[in-house]
Amino acid sequence: MGIPLDKASLLALFLETLFYGVFLTLYCLTLFVLLKNTGANRLLLIPVATVLLCMATGHLIVDFVRILEAFVFNVGKMSANDYYSNLASPLEYAKTALYVTQTVLADCVLVWRCYVLNHKSLFVAVPGLMVLFTNAVTGYIIVWSLSQANSSSTVFTTAHSWITTFFTLTMITSVTCTSLIAWRIYHTRRFMSDGFAVYLPILIVIVESGAIYATGVLSILLAYLSGSNGQYTVLDAVSPIMGIVFCLTILQVHFQIGSKSHIARTLEPRGVNTGSSESQLYAMWAGA
């Protein structure tokens, strides 16, 4: 097991609180940026960012309540380890349901961005939706399995294959969509020195953000497969990281590109009539 369950939970709360503060700051900046824009796309991005924040907040509140119950309210009735070992606790599977829903929402946005940036290709949409649907079903099966667990069950014996599948599909979605988005930006801008120079910082932040999220999910998966309680620490930290990654991309596009007019002037392919301009695609994709 490595780190004891109670210590893993305390460390998880510390890291989750730290990253939540970062997410809240970035959310406020993102909200300010999107409210300044007049594009209809903000009607999608603002609710998504808000829902991600609400879910991260709910997840954090549940963790605070569990810490109080484990170390304060139930200290004379059971040990903290016994408290956290109870998988059938309503707070345990409520927290898991929040995490699953947040993951599915974040992956939906990632697939949608990939779909938009690839000229709404069905070759991107159909496989992406299939993976999202499978992952959502898998995640809620995990929640149901936890609610049915008995006192002797552990997270390593309850729904083991479902949990492994969920995190594997999440990582595949993140890596695949991030790679396709990065390739699309590089492929369309590589022959235009000014255009590619403008988009290079965005390309970098997309790769870095995708790498941060994918690394977090991979860490959870490896810790889980190795039977380490460290998975709880990483899992709770990943909850606000999803929102951080979402907001970072929007902010990078805004501060690097500026306004839609700047995009149109700088990035429209010269001598090419695409019908749906690259500038419109980038604006729709990032809410710029």
Plain-language structure description:
The protein has helices at 5-36, 42-73, 80-85, 90-117, 122-147, 160-189, 193-225, 230-257, 260-267, 278-286. The radius of gyration is 21 Å and the shape is globular. α2 (42-73) runs antiparallel to α4 (90-117) and α7 (193-225) runs antiparallel to α8 (230-257). With 288 residues, it is an all-alpha fold. It starts with a helix and ends with a helix. It is built from ten helices and no strands.
Question: Which structural class fits the helix and strand makeup?
Answer: mainly alpha
Biggest pleated sheet:
none
Q: Regions with pLDDT < 50 over 5+ consecutive residues? A: 259-281
Q: Could you give the count of β-strands?
A: 0
Which of globular, elongated, flat, extended, rod-shaped describes the shape?
A: globular
Order of helices and strands: HHHHHHHHHH
Distance between the termini: 46 Å
Radius of gyration (CA) equals 21 Å
Strand content: under 5%
